[in-house]
Design goal:
Largest sheet of chain A: 5 strands, antiparallel
Structural class of chain A: alpha+beta
Distance between the termini of chain A: 31 Å
Radius of gyration of chain A: 21 Å
Oligomer: homotetramer
Catalytic activity (chains A, B, C, D): 5-O-(1-carboxyvinyl)-3-phosphoshikimate = chorismate + phosphate
Number of helices of chain A: 7
Strand order of the largest sheet of chain A: 1-2-3-7-4
Strand content of chain A: 15-25%
Cofactor (chains A, B, C, D): FMNH2
Helix content of chain A: 10-25%
CATH topology of chain A: Chorismate synthase, AroC fold
Number of strands of chain A: 17
Pathway (chains A, B, C, D): Metabolic intermediate biosynthesis; chorismate biosynthesis; chorismate from D-erythrose 4-phosphate and phosphoenolpyruvate: step 7/7
Subunit structure (chains A, B, C, D): Homotetramer.
Number of domains of chain A: 1
Order of helices and strands of chain A: EEEHEEEEEHHEEHEHEHEEEEEH
Largest interface: A-B, 110 and 110 residues
CATH architecture of chain A: 4-Layer Sandwich
Shape of chain A: globular
EC number (chains A, B, C, D): 4.2.3.5
Chain lengths: ~350, ~350, ~350, ~350
Amino acid sequence: MAGNSFGQLFRVTTFGESHGKALGGIIDGCPAGIELDLERIQLDLNRRKPGQSSIVTQRKEPDTVEIYSGIFEGKTTGTPIGFAIHNTNQKSKDYSHIKDSYRPSHADYVYDRKYGFRDYRGGGRSSARETASRVVAGAIAKQFLHGVQINAFVSQVGGMKLDKPYQELDFSKIESNAVRCPDTEMAQKMEDYIKSIKKEGDTIGGVITCVIQNVPVGLGEPVFDKLHAKLGEAMLSINAVKGFEYGSGFAGVAMKGSEHNDAYNADGTTKTNRSGGVQGGISNGMDIYFNVAFKPVATVLQSYETINKDGEKVITQGKGRHDPCVVPRAVPIVEAMAAMVLADYSLLARTNKI
Amino acid sequence: MAGNSFGQLFRVTTFGESHGKALGGIIDGCPAGIELDLERIQLDLNRRKPGQSSIVTQRKEPDTVEIYSGIFEGKTTGTPIGFAIHNTNQKSKDYSHIKDSYRPSHADYVYDRKYGFRDYRGGGRSSARETASRVVAGAIAKQFLHGVQINAFVSQVGGMKLDKPYQELDFSKIESNAVRCPDTEMAQKMEDYIKSIKKEGDTIGGVITCVIQNVPVGLGEPVFDKLHAKLGEAMLSINAVKGFEYGSGFAGVAMKGSEHNDAYNADGTTKTNRSGGVQGGISNGMDIYFNVAFKPVATVLQSYETINKDGEKVITQGKGRHDPCVVPRAVPIVEAMAAMVLADYSLLARTNKI
Amino acid sequence: MAGNSFGQLFRVTTFGESHGKALGGIIDGCPAGIELDLERIQLDLNRRKPGQSSIVTQRKEPDTVEIYSGIFEGKTTGTPIGFAIHNTNQKSKDYSHIKDSYRPSHADYVYDRKYGFRDYRGGGRSSARETASRVVAGAIAKQFLHGVQINAFVSQVGGMKLDKPYQELDFSKIESNAVRCPDTEMAQKMEDYIKSIKKEGDTIGGVITCVIQNVPVGLGEPVFDKLHAKLGEAMLSINAVKGFEYGSGFAGVAMKGSEHNDAYNADGTTKTNRSGGVQGGISNGMDIYFNVAFKPVATVLQSYETINKDGEKVITQGKGRHDPCVVPRAVPIVEAMAAMVLADYSLLARTNKI
Amino acid sequence: MAGNSFGQLFRVTTFGESHGKALGGIIDGCPAGIELDLERIQLDLNRRKPGQSSIVTQRKEPDTVEIYSGIFEGKTTGTPIGFAIHNTNQKSKDYSHIKDSYRPSHADYVYDRKYGFRDYRGGGRSSARETASRVVAGAIAKQFLHGVQINAFVSQVGGMKLDKPYQELDFSKIESNAVRCPDTEMAQKMEDYIKSIKKEGDTIGGVITCVIQNVPVGLGEPVFDKLHAKLGEAMLSINAVKGFEYGSGFAGVAMKGSEHNDAYNADGTTKTNRSGGVQGGISNGMDIYFNVAFKPVATVLQSYETINKDGEKVITQGKGRHDPCVVPRAVPIVEAMAAMVLADYSLLARTNKI
């Protein structure tokens, strides 16, 4: 209820603050019998972790996950998987300057108003550091979703937009560059741009596109819990996300029904895929694809004016170790959330019929 | 779990098919002591009901709601509010032609695959007729949310886009025209355009913008259940929706952090509102605003080719009574879902502190 | 959350007050493809309905259920099953005398304190009339649980206790008498006793025993949601229930482990069944059996002293149409709740393994 | 859903196996602003921990809890409280003899059938070691429930029953003896009896009574989620529990309504309290009291015959470190579960009225 859980049958609950002792979580409902490759979990964590390249935050965290339960002789047992990632590189002192003041477009003010006070160190619970736990859960969900391919990548940074249909991209190139854009030429431009933004002490937004292939027909529930509604909720729950669209998305608005409709092939596949792999909230077996918009990171390394708890004006200098652009590190988070949604609906789909 | 409920503390569960005996629902968790104005519920139903103007479906349904429980001497009692809307104008025969074939971009095919068979009359449960129940629940939620103003309106039809900031619009004009666009000049153009589309037997998409004012600070939960994530899920659960963005949305991607950040006034309000009234998933007291993209209705009154259950090609003529553009009738649905989300989080916010 | 739903995957939500327009509910998550025998639903309702014999309340209600959705061509569709039972024999005037006073051992006082006021007619939502909706849901759950046999019966009335092991009883005799005790001799004694209690204007308690046979191995979850914990919760949620025990129950306390343990046969069945069909919260395939204790009905048709809203002493005469002993009519309710629990866990058990 | 969570607004999720690396959990929904006394948490853990006296298991575990999040400057922050208890004294080798065979009246067989295999070390997830996490959560719930007194104690061991009304007992004596019975004379007899049972290599059952005082009026929900139904579920979810009764319980069955009813005093309290502090599922401000029946521990240190995975007969010698009687250590577990239920309903009660 307090919103630290996601999913119903494949249910993930996370805990942990940016500068606390540890982050972690519990995965409840993961079916028994999955042979877990623990290295693949760590691999996804490494894709998200700070300090991996020059265009991301330089906080040094190994982000090593410890699994406490739910696995025996290499396989999931059906009991809850508890895990933790210990924080090692907290520099809480970096944050004493914001103890009593509110950083613009951060959650400082609303936390104080909602809870009466807050753990101000590094944003506390509102920090995107929480998403490390999601990546662990997502990496396990991916292994459960044997055969389903989930590929997310950066398709826009600032005004720079990759305008190719995903079918023309080579997903194997995503990890070949620091930006995680599968078009290496565009990736280079984006990287240069992020570096120039960073030099200004500023930040910039971006878009992540996600493509999910080999999804079975029938995932998703017809009314409130439509598959794309839950995917949308999942993506919007990631820090800094401002928008979600799937299939034809916002552009589909301007089309006529006769143009927009996806005609059927004899085998139930469709000739076009403006539906984005979902019809009436239920997967139809075609590729699911969607875009996720991220705003520019709020922490700029510039001087700015804001207020303190007493409503007095204060001048502050942005500092700390921050990302100039969040999308390169958010790619595995988008994948993780998508995997969690699909795992949940895959289990639920087992209950549809007698 | 099967997805026919929405909300946790203010929890709405709906039932009913397009051409069954009745639609309806149960609202559980509505606090005791609300003096309910039943006419306002019916009024919202009338805004959604078919046959209200020449640019919507001509199915004739009075959509009269009967309330069975949960109200005593004009006030909510704290016990569940059960209600039903009886269907009176079913023309099931209209649908015998689709019994064995799959309409493109409809849920026919996925229902058959998911459940083994389907109630094919009028789309059954996948019909937007289900949203009548949501409007009832939303109208009750609105009365609970005393003081909060929720105004949705049509801001785009096809390529025609209302490019004014919402602050310049007069919301009292929304109901003055069939399109539900507060700019009466633009409304006329949109209406003419929808009529021309209808004449072609075709359909067109649109965008609804929703503005929520006077929201208290502190609604929303920090991690998975961010306020905007739940609003997004709510909107994406409405039939035909393809996208959701709030605050700066997709356009915010191209901004720098130094431009995008909302500076504080001394009283905790912000000078700009690119955050869209939500920071870190929690309402900050500023206006919440968002856009919802609707695709063109899939049923076109034209001849088209599709497949039947056996994968054989069939030529069908679209018929029945359908909307050429769904957004005018979807305005009260968007409001209803927004009200349900806010009611839920308002109750939850009572539990944050000792 | 407000407690009008039961179950997670097979989820039942009910509404309705004793003297409102209608009672009813929604079953969400019932799998598609069950051929429903509607007469069997009505039959269970008839076993619960008032006026069926001289030892139960004489309120005359046909208790006819109307099903609004979720069934098509005789089969469940996988979409929610909405239903209502219209009240026809409300005599609200019977209750004007309790409008401002609190009947002892009824919920009048706590409702007023919890909600600020109450629908006082016939106990409103706290009336056991609500359980009619549970019987509908349970009757559908039973049909889903094809092959599982659920038999509840009266095993004690006041101090009169049927002291035979259930294996020696003939369940086909349960419906042969008004008390619903399968031992016809004992049934006669119980009936005579209830009649004498009724003549005094008094009431008496009783025990219902329930035996569930042919349960598959593996239903129930290991920690908080143990199968017997959920059965216990289900039974304790029935009006007037004061206790629950399964297997060896309270008597098992006095046994030694070496006596109490159930030794295995080669096929995994056990030689004895003190476990009551559940080990570690999970069904082991043996018969599940349990006892449910019901207190005497609080409404006695005698004069009594109580207080009104202002804390003033008032003398009241109990009146209305009430049961002298609740257990004969509660038999189908116990079965219904058991069926709902088993249906829920049957669906959940499909998700245990890859 | 997989049953490792308890509560809705004050929600506890646990993980961990008997012989895994660590046990632990997450408390989500604990309100902000509680000044937590961490020593009181450890104190309750110590009351549950093994090795505390000669009549409990001699496994040596310090059971030291580490709290990872959700607390800042001594107070709860409103964010999830993650915690772990590291196992230090696992002797997994003790269990190699049961790897392939099924101990009678244990969960070994059903786990294998449900999940396909199991972590057999010390019962894995089915071990009562899991309840250490509940005690942590309960100890925090108790601190939230400022002013409410929860006292559980042993009222029966085998056939030895403490037959005094709880009002005549001195709760301050509960911790004065190893059995946790407030009547020191009876406690001595019980202790001697348990020692004699232990000497035989056998085990014995018992009853724990729990009394909750100073409960506000209005906790509990009227229909399925009655306060006593949830208390019953909570208690039945504890390992080895076979029965639950509250207020007049099973004995109330034999009373007449005119005797059983609790007459009101002018202030809304009642002269008697057969209702056990709950009417219609809602607390009425009187003392809540209930009994919980525990069966004898299944592991006896004797030789016994059972079957292995292939259904072959095997003769085994019970070994390991086990409790001859579980009730002394279960006292803090009963209190913890009661506290969790009350904390949950206390939060929910904030949402009843406008």
